[in-house]
Structure formats: C-alpha cells, structure tokens
C-alpha cells in the first residue's frame, strides 16, 4: 500500500456554479484556495479542499452596478455570510469506483454529499471533475425558497444549485 499526497494547484482548479430560479438562472465561479488529494496505490482514497467564498463571481450579469449589487447580496447573510464564513470545505470521506462521498461545510454547517467524478492520474499529476448538486436550504440559505416562503411567484429561487468542480493536483 503506497500512500501519495497531491497538493491542489489552485490556479488550475476551479468551481463553476449555477443557481436557478423560476425566470432563469445565474452562473459564475468560485475559487479553490488550497487542499490535498490522497491516493493509495494510485486510487483516490481521501482529501480535503478549502473554497474561498469571498472569491465568488457572477459571470452572466455584465452591467457592473447590477453585478456588484448581486455579488453583495450573495456575500450577505441571505446567502453565504462571507464576512463570518470566508471559507467552505469539502472533505472526501470515502470513494467507491468513481463515486465520491464527502462532507461539505458551508456557513459552519456540514452535510454529506455524494457525486460521481472523472478521475485521471498520470504520474505526478492528478485531475478530476465532478458535478455536485447541493440543497442550499440545508446550509441555512433560505432566501426566496418555496420550502420557507409562500406566494413567491416568479421570484422563487430553486433550492438546488450546481457546483461543477475541476481539480488539478501535483504530487507533493
């Protein structure tokens, strides 16, 4: 059994997010600050990475003032409380084939999240991609959720949001 640690290359790793509402969707990016991946005999067995919530960007709103207003709202207590919680974490708890089980912590609240990943190990280079679907209400993000507010009409924001994760790591 050979354990190997790979350090996340933050400049080559990223998360694309999509949040949907009745009238459409918004999308953007958020940065992976740092982390590590653990391989045992060339197979993914664990790891953890830290997400820089303050790096959240909105890509679909081109008007600077509107974009800044929306970014401020995402940073507020209605959503990610970035001032109080500048980081989120994803810790891999188990891997079976391409199925990754993990603990996701947002706003200090942790829940298990499973997802399928495409994993590639080539010598000292590790790459992986995966799509996570997260129920925001489990993390105290209830703004305009139909589970908590009535008569929202076309202002309703769906509870699930998507994180499309792309990670590159190099052997330490």
From TrEMBL:
InterPro entries: Lipid/polyisoprenoid-bd_YceI, TTHA0802/YceI-like_sf. Pfam families: YceI (PF04264). Residues 5-170 form the Lipid/polyisoprenoid-binding YceI-like domain. This is Polyisoprenoid-binding protein YceI. It comes from Chitinophaga niastensis.
């Amino acid at each position: 059994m050979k354990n190997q640690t790979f350090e996340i290359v933050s400049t080559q790793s990223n998360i694309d997010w999509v949040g949907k509402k009745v009238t459409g969707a918004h999308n953007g990016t958020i940065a992976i600050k740092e982390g590590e991946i653990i391989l045992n005999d060339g197979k993914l067995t664990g790891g953890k990475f830290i997400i820089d919530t303050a790096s959240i960007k909105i890509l679909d709103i081109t008007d600077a003032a509107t974009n800044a207003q929306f970014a401020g709202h995402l940073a507020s207590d209605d959503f990610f409380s970035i001032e109080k919680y500048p980081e989120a974490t994803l810790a891999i708890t188990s891997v079976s084939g391409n199925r990754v089980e993990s603990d996701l912590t947002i706003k200090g609240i942790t829940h298990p999240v499973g997802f399928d990943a495409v994993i590639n190990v080539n010598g000292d280079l590790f790459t992986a991609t995966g799509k996570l679907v997260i129920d925001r209400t489990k993390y105290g993000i209830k703004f305009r959720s139909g589970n908590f507010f009535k008569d929202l009409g076309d202002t309703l924001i769906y509870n699930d949001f998507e994180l499309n994760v792309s990670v590159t790591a190099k052997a330490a």
